[in-house]
Amino acid sequence: MATKSEILIVGGGVAGLALATRLGETLGKRGEARITLIDKSFSHVWKPMLHCFAAGTVQNENNRISFMSQASRHYFDFWPGEVIAVDRQNRKAVLGPVQSTDGTVVLEERTVEYDALVLAIGSCANDFGTPGVAEHCLFIDNLVEANGFNEKFRLELLKAFAANKELDIAIVGGGATGTQLAAELHKALDLVRLYSFERNPPRLKITLLEAGARILPAFPEQVSEAARKQLEHIKVEVRTGAQVSGADAGGFMLKDGSYVPATLRVWAAGVKAPTVTTRFGGLSLNRSGQVIVQPNLRSVDDERIFAMGDCSFISDEPLPPTAQVARQQAHHLARHLPALIRNGTDVPNCVFRNKGAIVALGDYNGWGTLPGGTVFGGGMLKGLSARIGHLMLYRQHQVELYGLYRGLLSCLADWIDALVKPSIRLD
Questions:
Q1: How far apart are CA 16 and CA 402, in angstroms?
Q2: Side-chain-side CA neighbours of residue 331 (13 Å)
């Protein structure tokens, strides 16, 4: 009996989990290959929701998908851990030890063989080596960081409430993450009014710092301007052309010599691949640490290795680091990897089809863009169509992973949960 092909997927984000689920339903279910997903976490969250988890306006307990449960239902294996090295010559990936919260080693360093390796480890914020940022700033690149920020946010709110002081928060990065986080934090404060001991909640001052000429640079200028006006309407100070030169325990230093004080300092600017890519067997990387791949998502250095999503870079046609791109690339590999495994058929080039973009500023407003430049949202309904569209993207993601029946039940469970539990995280 022939040995099963080993397909190793590293990273359980939007792209990695979608690929593992689809390949499990084809190659895994038929016993044609063993599909193994590796992730250092035990559960998946939709990364575009992290700013909501950070603000506490969405409870993350019902929005996590267990890797073990997903694997058991869709015919793939899951192992917790982080790939710390790749031996390309022997086609082996080295997993670092798994430790408990107290530092006890649960699983020793292990080695996993592969016939095809797919890297989908996502991205993180890029501090560009700015002095003090790593030491004094908070990040929200994953659920652990989002929960950590939320805990600090709630405690600082409590301190400001007790002392009748203002809480200063500065966010660096006027892209979708930083802009939406600013709105969600104000939404959180509005919800606090419902549960505070008094009717006057703590005062909140949020400053959004963007180095470029406008916020939301990936969107048309009219959306950027409308978003700026909306943020200023809810008392967010938006500063463009604000280049950060350093950070300390009290705030940010700007290149123009000014200083922005902030109790909580959030860095949401720039995108780079995790530094672990430098240990992946000498694969070619760009300046941001992303794995350079061909248009068919295969590494330019190794025919056995593919990369997709935020950790990959196509030199001929760079794509934005968005969930939409990652999802389409996962679908492409899920469609064509079976033929590669069965008969060696090469994977064709992946063609990205832009379906537009949506940005939602809490319950305050939202806008969307369609291919060709059409803009929708805003207006008297406060961008209701765009905000609903933003929510439906998440529901679509749930249905894809759960299936139609369980996906709809998940939506129903969230609706019921919203009637029972507080509308903001309070513990």
A1: 15
A2: 12
Do residues 424 and 195 make contact, with C-beta atoms less than 8 angstroms apart?
A: yes
pLDDT of res. 106? 87
By the 8 A CB rule, do 280 and 299 touch?
A: no
- How many other CB atoms sit within 10 Å of the CB of residue 224? 23
Residues 258, 197, single domain; the answer is: yes
Cα distances (angstroms) measured from residue 26 to each of 37, 236, 347, 389, 404: 15, 49, 17, 30, 18
Interstrand relation of 312-314 and 291-293 (parallel, antiparallel or unpaired) = parallel
pTM: 0.93
Examine the domain organization and report whether 131 and 234 are in the same domain.
yes
Is 177 a domain residue?
A: yes
Q: Is 221 helix (H, G, I), strand (E, B) or coil?
A: helix
| Segment 112-148, tens digit of pLDDT | 999 999 999 999 999 999 999 999 999 999 999 999 9
CATH number at residue 65: 3.50.50.60
Counted domains in the chain: 3
Q: Which of 238, 253, 270 delimits the end of a domain?
A: 270
Taking the C-alpha atoms of residue 261 and residue 253, their distance in angstroms, rounded to an integer, is 9
Domain range for 413 is 355-420
Percentage of residues of the chain with pLDDT beyond 90: 78
- Distance (Å, whole) CA 356 – CA 348: 24
Inter-residue contact 180 to 390 (CB < 8 Å): no
Q: How far, in whole angstroms, is CA 359 from its chain's centroid?
A: 14
For residues 73 and 27, give the distance between their C-alpha atoms in angstroms, rounded to a whole number: 14
- Check: CB of residue 242 under 8 Å from CB of residue 235: no
